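Annex B. Sample input.
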Amino acid sequence: MKRWLIFLIISLPALVYAEPSIKFENELHDFGTVRQGDFLEFAFAFTNMGNEELLIKRLTGS
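Annex B, continued. Sample output.
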């Protein structure tokens, strides 16, 4: 019991620390076969599930 209480006291700040958390509706999108010069566009819908402001600093395609 004593160890559990010590663990809880030490871990409490980490448990209540607020942070952003991103959740995507879909994480992947396949355009299929694309011809050179075609204009493609797709929007990924997402939600910030965390308690703090979510900052997206960089995006890259694969």
